[in-house]
Amino acid sequence: MATLRDIAKAVGVDISTVSKVLQGAPIRVSESRRQEIFRVAEQLNYRPNMVARGLRLGKSGAIAMPVPSTANYLYPEIIGGAEDAADRLGYVLFVLKQSAVDPLGRILNIVAQGRVDGLIFADDAPSAELVSALNGRRVPFISLNKGSDLDSHCVALDDQAGFALQAEYLERLGHRRVAFVKVIPTSFTSELCMGTFAARLEPEWVWECDFFGEGVLSVIERYGASDAPTAIATASVVVAARLVQGLREKGIRVPEDVSVIGYHDSPIAQWPLPGVTTVKMASREQGMRGVEALCELIAKGTFAGEVVSTPPEIIDRGTCAAVLPC
Amino acid sequence: MATLRDIAKAVGVDISTVSKVLQGAPIRVSESRRQEIFRVAEQLNYRPNMVARGLRLGKSGAIAMPVPSTANYLYPEIIGGAEDAADRLGYVLFVLKQSAVDPLGRILNIVAQGRVDGLIFADDAPSAELVSALNGRRVPFISLNKGSDLDSHCVALDDQAGFALQAEYLERLGHRRVAFVKVIPTSFTSELCMGTFAARLEPEWVWECDFFGEGVLSVIERYGASDAPTAIATASVVVAARLVQGLREKGIRVPEDVSVIGYHDSPIAQWPLPGVTTVKMASREQGMRGVEALCELIAKGTFAGEVVSTPPEIIDRGTCAAVLPC
DNA sequence: TTGAAAGCGCTAACAC
DNA sequence: GTGTTAGCGCTTTCAA
Using 50, 70 and 90 to split pLDDT, how confident is the model at B151? Predict the structure, then answer.
């Protein structure tokens, strides 16, 4: 690994001169020297050692995105957007899986070790404990989900608009008796969303479902036991996809017998063939804006919480049908 | 952030003494001092700055696991195992998503910047270009998949045993006319696996399928157009799960009309209710062993390629039935 | 125009 | 037993 010193030696100038030239600092050097320095740097394939620079500058040039699980099907979108923004802004983005046994451990560890300049929480808003630890260490962070603490720096999706659209869409198709499936564990946001949906179209049934386990089966059972809603709205594209599939396996036709609509969008939405209808949110953009906001926070120390206002969009994949007048 | 100096000042000793004591170096200090140093360190919530230590020691204490996509449903297992091992060995593991436009860019970047001591490739074996770049920079790496270059350091699963078991299982159930679905893009390993399967049970049809897109649909079409095999074996649990679901949506019964078996295991296997039968491989252990091997490589500079020999296991979730004698 | 020097936080060889 | 010192690679005043 070539260092500044190697270049300096080769060119015959001082190391500090090389540093300044390579940084493009406002310094007057003879043009020939400047050329020569760049030439040699190129030739030696010089790359600044960010660890050393970080030590000197008191910052690392890296940010981390802790995720509770690498198995979440929404993350690819968010992560993709975040990486793009990080690349563009000269930061390295590391995805850090939280440990199941000690969710805070790894995060506090890398923060305390000075490995990252900031954090961006992809899913759960950080716990109060984590927030106070982070504040104590003066490490800025952005959350992509509102926690109960509305003061925390947050780049949120406009879920109000999203769920309003979801309800409106079903309503427009003539659905009046619908079930809403919440994703558990429920969060501050999810309760809010449920409320937004209900404001437009009051669900007659409210069910709950986790991503894995028996959740989907139990929803199907409850569907069977109920006085059949004409549509099932869910707060998740994963649950929606599994639901379509599970219902069909039971011989219940989608959308002929019941319509199903999800929330968010991801490749998983295409698994029930030819796919499940969802409300597509601007997750990718959210990831991008989140990183941009974090960098702003790192640089300026301030950031006004914001909402990604890109309008939600219905992706019609044919699992919702109009209710026929009887 | 408390530094060594803060502690030294508070206790009234030299910074180097603190360093040595805290490291547990074989040094003789008066017991009272030792106690006092630990006490103050604790009180100040001291955590060594790994960036500084890294600079001094010429290593960062971090390793990265580049993944081509965070949407792969097998990774959670591997990553989980890798993280455990990394924690245990005192390393931080970062997941690094490769950029779609410049797959090598981010990897070379963090390596050149001295951010990581080694790499562990979760999926694709590194390209020849990457291998030579890595060797040039003397950055050790482990691949979890054999590339065409058998010399590269690799911690592989015993896929020979896995596919032999898959074939054997179907054979034992009486299947003779089977289709095998390869995952594309095919790799060195996948060809090998296909061979292992065929050695035991020659497939009458060999089809191909990618994870997303139209792959599954086209396999179903080909199934319909063919002189119906009694079983479909796949090299992927994702494809198997989607296949079960897609077939059932078309009214083809699984396993009554056709058996389906996957490969690997992941939560996704439980999506077709109540799940798809697969050959479970020791992915988690592979992640663990991979990190252990990498650390060995970092420390000792040598490592003999190895195969994770934990025997594969059939997880029967009811998508394979015995062929009835006609 | 260029260089010398200090220092980020840490470790390790060596001195007392 | 404990302190001094040098230095990892880099940036940045300040001096020449």
Answer: low
- The neighbour count for residue B47, using CB atoms within 10 Å, is 17
Which of these, A16, A34, A308, lies nearest to A146 by C-alpha position?
Answer: A308
Identity of the residue in A64, A96, A272 whose CB atom sits nearest the CB atom of B245: A272
pLDDT greater than 80 at residue B188:
no
Please report, in angstroms and rounded to a whole number, the separation of the first and last CA atoms in chain A.
76
**For position B148, what pLDDT does the model report?**
60
Strand C bases contacted by the protein (CB, 7 Å): 1-13
CA distances from A258 to A175, A324, B170, B173, B215 (A): 10, 12, 37, 38, 27
Domain B4-156+283-307 listed as CATH 3.40.50.2300: yes
Query: CATH 3.40.50.2300 region(s) of chain A?
Result: 4-156+283-307, 159-280
Asked if B25 CB < 7 A from strand D, the reply is no
Q: What is the pLDDT of residues B47-97, one digit of tens each?
A: 999 889 999 998 899 999 998 876 666 678 899 999 999 999 999 999 998
Q: Which of A122, A88, A93, A284 is nearest to B94 (CA)?
A: A93
**Chain B contact present for A318, CB below 8 A:** no
Residues 6+ apart with CB under 8 A from A295: A63, A85, A89, A91, A118
Most confident of A178-182, B47-51, B191-195: A178-182
> Which residue from B minimizes the CA distance to A137?
B1
The Cα A226–Cα A288 span in angstroms is 42
Please enumerate, as own/partner, the contacts of A43-46 that have beta carbons within 8 Å and a separation of 24 or more. A44/A2, A44/A6, A44/A7, A44/A10, A45/A2, A46/A2, A46/A3, A46/A4, A46/A6, A46/A7, A46/A22
- Cα B127 off chain centre by: 17
Judging contacts by C-beta atoms under 8 Å, the chain B residues touching residue A112 are 1, 47
Do residues A122 and A107 touch, judged by C-beta distance below 8 A? no
**A87 sits in which H/E element:** helix A75-89
- pLDDT of A82 > 60? The answer is yes
Q: Is A305 on the interface with B (CB under 8 A)?
A: no
Instruction: In whole angstroms, give the CA distance from residue B141 to residue B288.
Output: 14
Whole-angstrom distance, CA of residue A232 vs CA of residue A108:
41
Q: What pLDDT was estimated at residue B42?
A: 92
- The DSSP code sequence of B183-251 is ESS--HHHHHHHHHHHHHS--SEEEEE-SSTTHHHHHHHHHHHSS--SEEEES-HHHHHHHHHHHHHTT
CB within 8 Å: B95 and A95: yes
Handedness of CA B15, B93, B303, A46 (dihedral sign): negative
Q: Is the CATH code 1.10.10.60 the one for domain B159-280?
A: no
Chain B 189-218, CB below 8 Å of chain A: which residues? Answer: 212, 216-217
